[in-house]
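Our platform keeps sequence and structure together, in a single record for each protein. Such a record has a labelled line for the sequence and another for the backbone structure tokens. This encoding replaces a full spatial description with a residue-level series of whole-number codes. Below, we set out a record of this kind in full and without editing:
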Amino acid sequence: MMLLRSRSYKFYQLLHINENLNIARLHSSVQRDSEVERVVRIINDHPFPDHPLHPTLHSNIPQAALSTPFVEHVLGNLFAAHSNGLKAYEFFKYCLLSDSYFPSSDAFEKTLHILTRMRYFDKAWEFMGKIKLSHPSLLTLKSMSIMLSRIAKFQSYEETIKAFEKMEKDIFSGNTFSTNEFNVLLRAFCTQRQMKEARSVFNKMHSRFPPNIKTMNILLLGFKESGDVTAVELFYHEMIRRGFKPNNVTYNVRIDTYCKKGHFGDALRLFEEMERVHCSPTLETITTLIHGAGLVRNITKAKQLFEDIIRRNLELDIGAYNALLSSLVRSKDVISMTTLMDEMEKRNIKHDNVTYHTMFLGLMRLKGISEVSMLYTKMVEKNFVPKTRTIVMLMKFFCENGDVDLGVDLWNYLVKKGHCPHSHALDILVTGLCARGRVEEAVDCSKQMLERGRHVSQLVLKMLERFLVQMGELHKLEELECMTKKLKLFLPPPKGHVLT
């Protein structure tokens, strides 16, 4: 009896210790998130390049705080916040000045991603060149992929090939390029759905870089992204003729192709074929099929597939829940949508941007402004910051449904969180405010954008000019024009960027 009591006491003691550890971790995580948010807000609010950023960073960020995870989180938030790429670059350079900071590939890649997204390619090349000299181990296939994908998106085929050659001869000199690097180049074209260019590269270079199954799957994925079922099947048969054995990825791409085109029966046929040839379906396979079932509004099959995940001893994740949520939205089952979101919380599966975007989309179609407003309030209470497409969708819905105040609230929430909202969101908000005679608020939001080092579109500038002239507020117009000219002087729009 005493032994049982002793074991019981030890069990509860261990349980208490674990609870305390979890609380401590949660507290530490909240503190870190709060500090990251503070630093992101300082960077975004700083009037760079009018004033250098480094002194402000030095006075606000202790050197001891510059740990590898902390810097990665700050850069991740700067990316999500649509911060000016040059500010992120300045922050990374500041971190490198600290003897106690050891940069990671992740931090380097995030900074590079922010620069290339804003098309500051000269600075991006400069950045890669400096890292090559100081921290060559940070140069990875992922950093190469980030650079080449953006160049393929915004520049020509020839410039992308030249960039690959520059990578081989200069940035990654000393490394022998192989099929892995070749795959990165192919992926750059395929992710932009430039299949003619991808085919050209494959035909010209496959003798130098022998393709593997990953090469073929990248091309297959490219044909899938272009939405051509026939092209996918033709290339699949070419793979087989070349002697490649299809794997999980191959099947998943083909299944997704059929699902997106509404050919759910063909997708299920491939699913059955996978099992017949002992190519075990993955969680991604079943999640894709749940999406496919939703597209053809077969909610019974979607639920069956969802339950099949547990039966196969696979672990339910946010992707599977989001797939089922999307299916419920298409079946117009609002009660089940809400119940599923509650179930996710009970299982400690945090709602992500896809969850919110899907739910908002469903409520917009099936309910109205009051239900959307309620979910928006819950999202803000949880301190969740949505991604650009969700922000733009919400801003448009609020402004077009007579609740521009919610649009202003969303804008202020994002700015308070240290974010610099996307210019499309500003376009919508300024249009909504001006249409209701709230021109001063529209001017203030535009100034906030300019102060954070982001260009305002010509649409907004022309609209404000028209209203300010009518109001006789020429001094406010001059102030806006002065801020715009100053920003263009210090931070000219990247090459190929059009202010629309």
Summary: Residues 383 and 417 are 9 Å apart (CA to CA). Residues 2-45 form the longest helix (44 residues). DSSP finds 26 helices and no strands in the chain. Confidence is low (pLDDT under 50) at residues 18-27, 496-500.
